[in-house]
């Protein structure tokens, strides 16, 4: 599977404030760029922290761009939540309507929560004992035809993907603001690396809105 990570940070590397509320760091041009990235993906993923903070639907994408790649009848990209214990609320926007939503869970998810996710329209994919085993879960997604995954965050999931060596490409929009705060989420949180830091090769730099888009391949 090809895994692409895209997120927007403040100039000081924050995804949001310490309140963990959704902040529009991107401007219109960058949101349009993200819609094109979504259109190129088989599925768009976020972690449960992002679902609980932002309640995203992940439905919006550039339909014209998708049709130009896949034809007019192409179905929209599927949605994915990384959610060990199936905490995704039944009324979460990410479970509403179409397209399909895969909930990547672990064995620790109680049967009642798995059933609640299914009743709300989601499809659990179980990998790992306590937390989601991301490598196994992505294999599960591949088995249902997902070859290109766009991950939008948040910082915990992005770090774990890097830690597991699963990221192929990283794109970051750096906006023109400073958020600050030691408890505010950053692009890659988790425990952090202390050695053997992932290495990136800079592929492109583009001015957009009042910020810049940086695109790296992961070596
Ligand atoms: N500016 C931007 O582009 C974006 C900003 N955001 C912001 O980011 C914040 C949310 O980020 P964050 O709190 O880091 O949450 P995440 O969305 O990264 O979700 C983290 C949760 O995912 C679950 N999880 C399951 N398995 C794993 C695993 N193997 N590795 C890591 N996590 C796993 C964990 O919960 P459990 O154990 O219960 O399963 C964990 O707490 C919000 O403030 C949101 O607004 C989010 C996306 C993009
Ligand atoms: N690219 C980007 N720029 C920002 O400034 C953002 N705040 C985000 N957030 C991500 O977008 C998701 C919401 O998407 P929908 O409104 O459902 O289309 C949100 O959950 C974050 O993952 N992204």
Automatic annotation (TrEMBL):
Keywords: NADP, Oxidoreductase, Riboflavin biosynthesis. Pathway: Cofactor biosynthesis; riboflavin biosynthesis. InterPro entries: DHFR-like_dom_sf, Rib_reduct_arc, RibD_C, RibDG_C, Riboflavin_Biosynth_HTPR. Its EC number is 1.1.1.302. It catalyses: 2,5-diamino-6-(1-D-ribitylamino)pyrimidin-4(3H)-one 5'-phosphate + NADP(+) = 2,5-diamino-6-(1-D-ribosylamino)pyrimidin-4(3H)-one 5'-phosphate + NADPH + H(+); 2,5-diamino-6-(1-D-ribitylamino)pyrimidin-4(3H)-one 5'-phosphate + NAD(+) = 2,5-diamino-6-(1-D-ribosylamino)pyrimidin-4(3H)-one 5'-phosphate + NADH + H(+). It is an enzyme of class 1 (oxidoreductase). It comes from the Archaea. One of its GO terms (biological process) is riboflavin biosynthetic process. Pfam families: RibD_C (PF01872). One of its GO terms (molecular function) is 5-amino-6-(5-phosphoribosylamino)uracil reductase activity. Residues 2-214 form the Bacterial bifunctional deaminase-reductase C-terminal domain. Belongs to the HTP reductase family. PANTHER family: 2,5-DIAMINO-6-RIBOSYLAMINO-4(3H)-PYRIMIDINONE 5'-PHOSPHATE REDUCTASE (PTHR38011:SF7), DIHYDROFOLATE REDUCTASE FAMILY PROTEIN (AFU_ORTHOLOGUE AFUA_8G06820) (PTHR38011). Homodimer. This is 2,5-diamino-6-(ribosylamino)-4(3H)-pyrimidinone 5'-phosphate reductase. It comes from Natronomonas moolapensis (strain DSM 18674 / CECT 7526 / JCM 14361 / 8.8.11).
């Amino acid at each position: 599977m090809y895994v692409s990570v895209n997120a927007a940070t403040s100039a000081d590397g924050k995804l949001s404030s310490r309140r963990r509320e959704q902040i529009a760091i991107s401007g219109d041009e960058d949101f349009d760029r993200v819609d094109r990235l979504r259109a190129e993906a088989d599925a768009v993923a976020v972690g449960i922290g992002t679902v609980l903070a932002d309640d995203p639907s992940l439905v919006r994408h550039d339909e014209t761009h998708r049709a130009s790649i896949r034809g007019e009848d192409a179905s929209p990209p599927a949605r994915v939540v990384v959610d060990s214990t199936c905490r995704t609320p039944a009324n979460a926007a990410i479970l509403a309507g179409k397209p399909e939503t895969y909930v990547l869970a672990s064995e620790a998810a109680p049967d009642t929560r798995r059933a609640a996710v299914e009743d709300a329209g989601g499809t659990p994919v179980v990998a790992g004992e306590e937390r989601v085993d991301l490598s196994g879960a992505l294999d599960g997604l591949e088995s249902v035809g997902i070859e290109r995954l766009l991950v939008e965050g948040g910082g915990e999931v992005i770090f774990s993907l890097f830690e597991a060596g699963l990221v192929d490409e990283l794109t970051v929009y750096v906006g023109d603001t400073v958020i600050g705060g030691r408890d505010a989420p950053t692009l890659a949180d988790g425990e952090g690396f202390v050695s053997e830091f992932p290495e990136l090769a800079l592929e492109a730099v583009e001015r957009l809105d009042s910020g810049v888009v940086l695109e790296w391949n992961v070596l």
